[in-house]
From TrEMBL, chains A, B:
Domain HTH gntR-type: 16-83
Protein name, entry field: GntR family transcriptional regulator
GO MF entries: DNA binding; DNA-binding transcription factor activity
Record-linked InterPro entries: GntR_C (IPR011711), TF_FadR/GntR_C (IPR008920), Tscrpt_reg_HTH_GntR (IPR000524), WH-like_DNA-bd_sf (IPR036388), WH_DNA-bd_sf (IPR036390)
Coiled-coil parts of chain: none
Keyword DNA-binding set for record: yes
Sorted UniProt keywords: DNA-binding, Transcription, Transcription regulation
DNA sequence: ATATATCGACTTGTATACAAGACGGTATTG
DNA sequence: CAATACCGTCTTGTATACAAGTCGATATAT
């Protein structure tokens, strides 16, 4: 079988391996609903699509499997893990636990980290200065990730990053409504206020409510979006 | 190259793949200090030792890499990640955060889960009924894992299990002293008491102190044990 | 003697060949 | 016609071949 669209780098690899790029490509396809939850596909299909051989494809797939995005059926192909809202809600709750712990540490610090002011510059702004582009989801993710990273425990930050990445696929859907974006700005602002004043319990309560609200909103939207995606793309799995 | 000691199953694989067994074997070797932190080794060596080819070996190694046990140097071999006590302490702190969150949920439940009584049967026993075998570390791990699992959030339980597994290599060292085993029994007992009486804050405080104590004890012991291991095994990496 | 250039053994990354089981369609048998 | 056995196709798991780069030892030049 000849390589289809060999997006291999010339010379050699420039920092990232072929397996890593296949990994990123596949995850992007899942996030873009180009591969729908429940879809079946084979390693050979992915190899042909990406222009790589099965070896790096398998490495990428097994990594995605460990991370919960796909699963393998013994000698019967791969499948995008179907949505399980219970799992997503549990992951939201993990976020609440980790981020509240981060808040406790942040408030206990002798001096507030400079990162806090940087966040205030972004989020504590009047209505006309607010951004509404589709990259809002990334900014929101960056906000919460920054809180945990600044708390000082890098292992906790790594775990939190993985959890955030995992629910990013549905969290994005929360930023398609203008009212939800407004609410995000408002809530981030008051959280940062409470943090600046070292009101630990208050900040934790605001943060918990903020995440829980997002969790509940997303559940409603996801079903709708999934339905739309199923209509746009035909039912054929990876061959768009 | 012919297979050395092919511990491959006859017929076919009975549930677990070759890659998984190589993974388990390597992790065991690391836990047994047969592969010491800092040791260098190659895929070919592991393949010869385990009787598998490089393919499943690579899969096992990359999984261990994702989990933080080994790292790969581009075309220069693999290395057991050297001990980093800062990382271990951070992981201990993650355990405190997760297990305290579990306690909060357990105390908030309308009725205590039956697992609580099972744990009391094990840990709330008089001195002569206590076990002192080397499997204590596993029992201790099971205690803490059970708390988080019983709290209901399975994703949190999975993360907690990974963290516990990661620090298990040094946590075992805490159970080589009889006084530490005694303390573990005592502390588990009072934690279970507080849980049964739904004293949330008290149980959290006891649990935090219990984990923090273990964290501090282990740091002291680890250096000693590492020194001993280095003396027993020669300096040659995997070829014992 | 010392510094440098070159070469070769060894490493991982990737591609391909082979093995063994799953699954569905088809032919066969009642 | 219905049920069943069989066989070919397709799948992943594993082994091996090839590619490209690293690193140290050795020889050479200054």
């Amino acid at each position: 079988m000849t390589r289809a669209s060999p997006f291999r780098q010339r010379g050699s690899m420039r920092g990232q391996s072929l397996a890593e790029r296949v990994y990123a490509t596949l995850k992007q396809m899942i996030f873009d609903f180009e591969l729908l939850p429940g879809d079946y596909f084979s390693e050979a299909e992915v190899a042909e699509r990406t222009g790589a051989s099965r070896t790096p494809v398998r490495e990428a797939l097994h990594r995605l499997r460990r991370e919960g995005y796909v699963e393998v059926h013994f000698r019967s192909g791969w499948q995008v893990v179907p949505f399980d809202f219970d799992v997503f809600e549990q992951l939201y709750d993990v976020r609440i636990v980790l981020e509240c712990a981060a808040v406790e540490r942040l408030c206990a610090m002798s001096e507030p980290p400079p990162m806090l002011q940087a966040l205030r510059d972004i989020w504590c702004v009047p209505g006309q200065a607010r951004s509404f582009d589709p990259a809002m989801a990334e900014q929101d993710k960056a906000f919460h990730t920054a809180l945990v990273t600044a708390s000082g425990n890098q292992e906790m930050a790594r775990i939190h990053r993985d959890v955030s990445e995992r629910i990013h696929i549905i969290r994005r859907l929360d930023f398609t409504q203008a009212t939800r974006i407004e609410a995000t700005y408002d809530e981030h602002a008051v959280i940062l206020e409470a943090l600046a004043r070292r009101r630990t319990a208050h900040a934790q309560q605001l943060l918990s409510a903020h995440i829980a609200l997002s969790r509940n909103e997303v559940r409603k939207i996801t079903l709708h979006m999934l339905h739309e995606a199923r209509s746009r793309h035909a039912q054929g799995p990876p061959e768009a």
